[in-house]
Structures are given as structure tokens and as C-alpha cells.
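Now for a typical sample entry:
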Amino acid sequence: MAVTTIKSTYSLDVESVRTLEALARHWKVSKSEVLRRALRIAASEEGPGKSATRSLDQLQASLRERNFNLTRWARDVDHERDAAARRLPFPSP
């Protein structure tokens, strides 16, 4: 079965090209294959926005496991900010 390929041109910085070449040598594949693998890995593992969402989910789960009271924490932070604001002099207009 024939594989359709599309020839494309991209501009890369010097460090990216060196990394690409080093990976191609290390994996003993073409630079095109390195790019294909990197794209597949990036699309399957992270994808746009998935990493940030996953991090937030992990943080929230961790806090729930430790019975951390976010409502009380937010209230305490608000009180601390109010107290700090009362101690700071306001500039004259």
C-alpha cells in the first residue's frame, strides 16, 4: 500500500535543527521520520490545552485527598490581603 507524502518547507532555529539531526542519528531514521514521531507523540500525549487541564485536575484531586478546605483558604487569603491593605498608606491624588 502506497503512503501519500506531502513535501513541505519549514524554518527552524539552529538549536532545533541540531536536535532534529541528533535524534535522527540516535534513532537511525530520517529527519522526516523524527518529525512524524514527534508530532504523533505531541498529539497523543498532550494536545493543545490538555496539559494545563490535566495539571489542574491533578491539583484538585490532590487537595480533595488531603481534605484541604479551599473555601476556608480563599477566605483566609482575603483577610490577609485586607489586613495588608489597611497597613499600607494610600498615595495622595
Notes: Residues 52-87 form one domain. Helices lie at 14-27, 31-45, 50-65, 70-87.
